[in-house]
Structures are given as structure tokens and as C-alpha cells.
Specification:
heterodimer, A: mainly beta, 5% helix, B: mainly beta, 14 strands, 54% strand, globular
């Protein structure tokens, strides 16, 4: 008997071989079309910037779809270099996932590709380029190639009156000597939805509304902290996955590629600033005005005095049992000095991509990845085509036996920020066969070796 | 090529470079603060405290124009530099000298404001400009009031570091007051052997007046073989041995710079 689910799976397999063809050969309209092309961005009246975007806008168009309901998307590359689009957070086959390292075919200049995607799991996902930038800080994730992808569940409780999608991004990167003795990126401009504070339209709300914010950090390298003066965030999901213990917090922290969905009660009429907590980042633009109906006050900002965030507060109270103990995979993260005038090279267990061995997994088994970060940097690590559950955070790397009493359960993500000089552990089940890329989501780190391929049949 | 071999090769290049310089040039323009400036400035709300220790092993042995001989002089200079904002600082120098028969003596003081091109401008090289005004006692320098303007350009490329300071000097009081602008360039090239240890050469020169370059014998030319130890972003350690070849140059100097940065302002992560 062939179920509807089997049919959908089959169509997913069909998408393993996406069609590549010229512009004039499209047989019928796709559900969505993404055109990758150069654009000129006006980040503010004082900052115009030439970059690459999707459909002439940054962020790219919001793609809304329903869980497990296939859709087609045509991706047209109107740039002068090969491009690829990664569907971040989706359980796609490797050939369409959008990472050349996994086997996705790049789209040649002035060519296009059509993909059939089965959108799952439900939640706030996104799409972005997955190319290399190396020392060109206008390309890859340094550009405007990112957009929101919302997979609606079959049944949506819709406990909100209005929703906004917000993308935090940094622009015009340059290298700066840092305290770790190597060069690191700094930025001249920072935006929300491609605009500096006051340069774009405000978020218009009404008193009494429950507003759902979908916040994405699409920055190539930077962690961001966000506060909403006069209001608090009720965090309901991390990386698009509902948290077991929704909490109300004063600020959000998002590492590159992380997403947070939070409900905000509009119960404090006025004109407010929703922006980066750190003064020097807000000063270069990362903020947006939130304006209640019939209010035209000067935008108010209450400067927080400290940065407050932890993942653990959203963890579940009751531990669950997975049956067999997971297979533990230690992954030692280290940097390799290349001079005070260069960025560091990165290694996982002593190997730097592409000079790495593929890590074989066994289908159906559960794995516990130990991210042992011996470097001086925090790393937002991402596993393609899977979600993982956070199990241990911020453990000292010197300890031979991790403190099991500090284990947490229930937070499912696809990116986690591993603090410097600590060990973070996550678990996932190898239930989506094929090549799966693991990497740091800082563009400069993945460019310089911080990648590893898992594979299983 | 494996890294250790690469290091040896580059070290050989540096040594060869030193030898070439040493054979053609000689002595430093001042024996109180022997330093090639980088373009970076001290961050705001931070104070950099540096001690420059220079000992002249082989220098001028005779009293000339009332100026004490430099032979076996031990110079201790305290430099305090306060960051004003992200692109400016001001430095203050206290020069002292210790020598048999003279004891510890105050030599003079200088003040040195400096500005630089902000990083956000995205220039391919670091650029800053300092100006230094100061007094030194006539027992240690015939020119007692001097002024200097020092453009600074530097660049790090991988493990290599380059800096050049084509400084211009003017005497306001002293025998050289009619000389006009003098040219006193200095430069540095170094290589990062490890994250902590860098080594290279520094070159200091004083060509005399622009438009009336002094004969080689009267020029001051000196080359130092130096190492920088980058043990912490809060510490600065520079050690070197310098040789000079012209008659006006001290022939052998040992120098050391020990610096510590103190952050005195509010430096919370929010700030």
C-alpha cells in the first residue's frame, strides 16, 4: 500500500536530481522563483552599498509553505559566479540541501535550477547562499543573500494578532587586529531588514495586540543582542522549534544563523526602539522603531546595563529516555595561528576542511556530539539536514567526566553557540541518510577549514 | 614546505637584511625612545604605561659642545599614553639618564598627540599622524626645544609586519634652529614565528636638513635586531640590539620596551 507520505517521499527523491536549464526553457511556473542578482542597497541615506540579493530585495522574499506539502522553487543565477541556495533547517536530501560539499550541484552563471522541496519540520527556517567568501567581504554570507522560510504546521494555533520577520545583518566588513592575536572581522554598518535605525518603515502595532516576532541573525560572523524598550519577549521557539519551557526575557541573544520566535504583548503605548543592546552596534544602525497607532513620540530607548541570556532557561523539567545510550563523538575545535596579519585557520580533531576524513555514521543510531572548544572564540556550529537536542552547555573542557547532573533536555535546534574554552554536547538521531555537513556558521571560520562531513547510507 | 623550514628560511632572509643594512647604514636618532610606531592608537579610557630602557654599550666617549658623552649611559624613559577616542591619543614622556659621575638625571619631557585613520574607513594600510613637542636639557642635547611631525604607515600581511615613520624634525631652540626641517625616518619589518614570538629589524636614521642632506659621516644611522613578545594584549615587550656605523652614531645599544595597558573606564560588554 502506498500512502500519501510515501508519495511525498518519492517526490523528495525526485528532487535529488534538480533540473538545470537556461532561462527560456522553464516548462511551467514554479511555486516560487528566486532570482540571484546584484542590487544596490540603501542601508541609510548615507550608506549605499552594492551587493547581491534575492529578487532585488534584502532580505529575500518570505517563503511560506505548509509542512510536508511539496512545492517547487526555481532558482535563477544572474551573477557571474556559481551559486547555491541552502535551505537552512530543512530535512532535505543532500543533493538539494544547498551545500556543494554534500553534493548539491552549483548553479552556473546565467543558469537556473528547479527544486522540489518537501518542507519539514514545521517552524521558522531560512534560506541563504552557501558559497565561500575567503577574503572578499562582499560575497557569500557577507552579501544580502538571505531570506525567511516559514513552514506552517498543519494545525496552527495562531495565538497572535500580527507577526513580523526581522533579519539582523552586518555590512561592509573589514579586518581588525583582535585580542586573540589574529585578524577578525568588524563592520561599518549593521541593519535590521536591510535598514539602519530610522531609515526604514517602523513596525506599526496597536495597543492590546499580541505580536509574534520571528528574529533571524543572518550576520556573517557576529552574535547579536536584542532588546525592546518598554517590553519583554516571551520566547516560544528557538531555531523554529518550540521550547519545552517558554520564558519571558528582557533580551534575546542570537548567534549567526540562530532564530528566535517570541511573543510580545503590546501593552505600553508609545514609540519605542527595538535594537541591539550593545551601544557601539546600535550606533552603526542595528535598531528599528516600533510605533503604536496614533502615537508620534520620539523613539525611546532604555539602555540595559548588562547582557543576559542562557539556553538552559528554556529546557524541559522532565528528563526523557532514548533507550540505548548514544554514541559519543568528541570534536575538538582548535585554531591554527597564521600570523597577526591573517585570520586563523580552524581544525576539528586536528583536521581542516577539505583535508578531512568523512565521519561515517550508522543510520538509526543516536549520537552525542561533544564540541570541545579549545579556541579563544565562540562558535555557532550548525548541522545540516538534522536537528539536535542540547544536552550539556558550558562545561569546562578540562574535566574528564562531564557533570551529568547539569544535563538538560528538550531544546531542539540546528545551531548552537559553543562558548570559548568550554564543552557543549548535543544529541541527534541519524535518521536522514546521506552526506550532512557540520560547520561553524561564521563565514570566515567555515571558509578557513571549520567544516566536517558526516555520511551514512 | 613544512612550517619550521619556512621559519628558518625567513629568519635567514631577516639576518641577511640586517647585515646589508649594517654595512651601509648606522645609529639611531635618539637614544631615549627607540621605537618604530605602529598606526594603532591606545583605546579610549585606557592608559598605556611604557618603560624604555636603553644602554649605550659603545657610544660617544667625549664631551662635545657641552653635551655629556653617551658611552655607558643608561636611559630610562617613562611613556604614558592615554587613549582619547577610537582614533586619537596623547602621549607624555619623562626622559632620564644614569651615568657614572653624573648619577640619575632628568633629561627632559615631551608631549605627543596622535590621530589615525579609523578602521571603519577600510584603508588598505594603517595610517596615523603624531606630532611631538619637547624640551631636553642642554647637557644632553644642544637643541633644547624640538618639534617633530611623524606620519606612520603600517601593514600586517599574514606573518609579516611592515611599518614606516618618515618623521620630520624642527629645532625651535639650539644650534640647529636655522637648519630647518630635518628628515629622521625609521622603519620596521618583522615576522611572526609563533603567536607569541615575532622578530625582525628596525632601522633609524637622521639625514640632517631636507635639501641639505648631511654627509654620511654626520648622518645618524642605526639598525636593531629586535624581538616582540606578544604574551598578552595588555602587555608590550620589545627587546633589541642596535649597531651603528657612521661616526655620529652610537655603535652599540641595547634596548628594551616594557609596556602595560591599564583599562580604567567602564568596559562592560554593553559599552
Amino acid at each position: 500500500m502506498v500512502s500519501r507520505r510515501d508519495v511525498l517521499k518519492f517526490s523528495g527523491l525526485m528532487s535529488v536530481a534538480p533540473s538545470l536549464h537556461g532561462f527560456a526553457q522553464t516548462p511551467q511556473a514554479a511555486d516560487y522563483t528566486l532570482v540571484i542578482a546584484p542590487i544596490t542597497m540603501e542601508l541609510s541615506p548615507h550608506h549605499r552599498l552594492r551587493t547581491t540579493g534575492y529578487n532585488g530585495q534584502v532580505p529575500g522574499p518570505l517563503i511560506r509553505c505548509t509542512e510536508n506539502r511539496p512545492f517547487t522553487i526555481e532558482v535563477v543565477n544572474r551573477t557571474d559566479r556559481p551559486e547555491v541556495v541552502h535551505w537552512h533547517g530543512l530535512f532535505t536530501p543532500p543533493d538539494v540541501d544547498g551545500a556543494m560539499e554534500e553534493g548539491t550541484t552549483p548553479i552556473a552563471p546565467n543558469a537556473s535550477a528547479r527544486y522540489t522541496l518537501i518542507p519539514r519540520p514545521a517552524g521558522f527556517r531560512w534560506y541563504h547562499t552557501h558559497t565561500m567568501a575567503m577574503n572578499d567581504f562582499t560575497r557569500a554570507q557577507y552579501s544580502g543573500q538571505h531570506g525567511f522560510l516559514m513552514i506552517e504546521p498543519r494545525e496552527n494555533p495562531a495565538l497572535f494578532d500580527q507577526e513580523f520577520f526581522l533579519a539582523l545583518h552586518d555590512w561592509a566588513g573589514y579586518l581588525l587586529a583582535s585580542d586573540d592575536g589574529a585578524m577578525n572581522l568588524s563592520y561599518a554598518v549593521a541593519t535590521i531588514n536591510g535598514k539602519t535605525m530610522g531609515s526604514g518603515e517602523p513596525l506599526r502595532v496597536k495597543e492590546g495586540q499580541r505580536v509574534l516576532l520571528h528574529v533571524l541573525n543572518s550576520s556573517p560572523t557576529e552574535v547579536h543582542w536584542l532588546a525592546f524598550s518598554g517590553h519583554k519577549f516571551h520566547v516560544v521557539s528557538l531555531d523554529g522549534n518550540a521550547v519545552p519551557n517558554p520564558r519571558t526575557v528582557s533580551m534575546l541573544r542570537l548567534a549567526p544563523a540562530e532564530r528566535i520566535c517570541a511573543i510580545v504583548d503590546m501593552d505600553n503605548p508609545g514609540v519605542w526602539v527595538l535594537g541591539e543592546v550593545r551601544k557601539h552596534v546600535q550606533a552603526i544602525g542595528m535598531a528599528i522603531i516600533v510605533e503604536y497607532a496614533n502615537r508620534s513620540d520620539r523613539a525611546a530607548w532604555d539602555q540595559p546595563s548588562q547582557l543576559v541570556w542562557n539556553y538552559e532557561q528554556f529546557a524541559g523539567a522532565q528528563p526523557e529516555s532514548w533507550g540505548d545510550p548514544p554514541i559519543v563523538v568528541p570534536m575538538i575545535i582548535e585554531s591554527k595561528f597564521r600570523g597577526h596579519g591573517a585570520m586563523e585557520r580552524w581544525t576539528i580533531n586536528g583536521e581542516s576542511y577539505p583535508d578531512t576524513r568523512v565521519a561515517p555514521l550508522v543510520a538509526g543510531r543516536r549520537y552525542r556530539l561533544q564540541f570541545i572548544n579549545r579556541s579563544a572564540d565562540d562558535h555557532p556550529v550548525h548541522l545540516h539536514r538534522h536537528s539536535f537536542e542540547l544536552r550539556a552547555l558550558g562545561q569546562p573542557i578540562q574535566s574528564s567526566a562531564p557533570d551529568a547532573s547539569k544535563d538538560i533536555r528538550g531544546i531542539v535546534k540546528d545551531v548552537v553557540l559553543v562558548d570559548a574554552q568550554t564543552c557543549t554536547e548535543v544529541e541527534f538521531t541519524a535518521d536522514n541518510p546521506g552526506a550532512s555537513l557540520f560547520h561553524c556558521h561564521q563565514q570566515n571560520h567555515m571558509d578557513l577549514g571549520f567544516m566536517l562531513l558526516f555520511n551514512y547510507a | 614546505m613544512p612550517e619550521p623550514n619556512g621559519h628558518r628560511w625567513r629568519f635567514t632572509v631577516l639576518i641577511a637584511f640586517v647585515c646589508v643594512f649594517a654595512s651601509t647604514l648606522a645609529r639611531a636618532q635618539t637614544n631615549y625612545e627607540i621605537q618604530v610606531y605602529g598606526a594603532e592608537t591606545v583605546p579610549p579610557e585606557s592608559l598605556m604605561v611604557e618603560l624604555h630602557s636603553n644602554f649605550t654599550v659603545d657610544g660617544q666617549k667625549y664631551l662635545v659642545d657641552g653635551v655629556y658623552p653617551t658611552q655607558h649611559q643608561e636611559h630610562e624613559t617613562i611613556e604614558l599614553t592615554e587613549g582619547l577616542n577610537e582614533w586619537s591619543e596623547v602621549g607624555f614622556y619623562l626622559f632620564t639618564s644614569e651615568q657614572d659621575g653624573h648619577g640619575v638625571q632628568w633629561v627632559g619631557d615631551h608631549i605627543r598627540p596622535r590621530i589615525r585613520v579609523p578602521d571603519s574607513w577600510g584603508w588598505p594600510v594603517g595610517v596615523s599622524l603624531s606630532t611631538e613637542i619637547g624640551f631636553q636639557r642642554s647637557a644632553y642635547s644642544t637643541d633644547t626645544w624640538t618639534w617633530e611631525i611623524r606620519p606612520i604607515v603600517d601593514k600586517s600581511i599574514g606573518r609579516w609586519y611592515f611599518a614606516i615613520n618618515p618623521a620630520l624634525e624642527r629645532t625651535w631652540h639650539g644650534p640647529d634652529v636655522k637648519q630647518g626641517l630635518g628628515l629622521s625616518p625609521s622603519a620596521k619589518i618583522s615576522y611572526d614565528f609563533t603567536r607569541v614570538v615575532s622578530a625582525g629589524i628596525e632601522w633609524y636614521a637622521d639625514y640632517g636638513a631636507i635639501g641639505n642632506i648631511s654627509p654620511i659621516h654626520d648622518q645618524q644611522q642605526q639598525v636593531f635586531l629586535v624581538t616582540d613578545l606578544n604574551v598578552s594584549p595588555l602587555w608590550e615587550i620589545n627587546i633589541g640590539v642596535g649597531i651603528g656605523a657612521t661616526g655620529s652614531t652610537d655603535h652599540l645599544i641595547v634596548k628594551a620596551i616594557l609596556g602595560r595597558r591599564f583599562d580604567w573606564g567602564r568596559h562592560s560588554l554593553v559599552d
